Amino acid sequence: xxxxxxxxxxxxxxxxxxxKKLRKKNRDLYNIEVTNKVNQIDERYLLDDYNAAIDTKNxxxxxxxxxxxxxxxxxxxxxxxxxxIDKIIVKIPIKYFNYVVFILAILCVLYMLIAGIMSIQVLIxxxxxxxxxxxxxxxxxxxxxxxxxxxxVNQNLIRNNIIYASYRAIRNSVVCLVIVFGLSIFPYNIxxxxxxxxYQYSDVYEIIYGEDVVEWIKNNPNVDVDIEKIIHGSIDNVxxxxxxxxxxxxxxxxITIELINNSYLIKDIKNNIIEVY
Length: 277
Known about the structure:
alpha+beta
């Protein structure tokens, strides 16, 4: 059961082992089984089988070309993934959920790349034909004809295994893509809930710096202030109405912050604070 699941998730595995055996069999021509009764077979039937093997090769290559054409169309969808991911993260600001969405997007792209590489492999690396020489045709060397048929059949099996694995990779890519787009059009927007927990466990917000803060940063290049840490540590005390003045004793700064929708406007920063007891 586990092996089957792994094969579905990583379709290349199922094509690799049988193809390795078929390639080894084709490399060793003596392992190609040729019946002792080959001379009793009509030459026309053998030539028909040979032509059928060549025709199968062409049809398998056409399938590979179709996959590549489909992937070029899918690229347009992938190019919009970043926008879709941003929309999902804003809509569902759950801690670590953005990593799940990111992994799904990466898997979608990887599966497409795998399918494309395997399809190109069929057209280039595995574009092997075992032809019949003119001598074999004219001398009616039936054993050689049957041998070429078996070699081409084995090579077609290699192509078929690769294309089948390519289809599985496309299927997995589509599944990941559907999940991502499904989340993007999900009608429930968690970020609209104005409760403390939503803000407390969300890493999705925008920090805006006012003119005075920008000037302070320019004048204090050696002072490293972790604004995000201050925001996370004071979310419970930041009100949506008016300015909020926060003192971070650890960093030795006072910041003036205002919460506007999902944005934190940093209006002022003061350091070199003197504490009087």
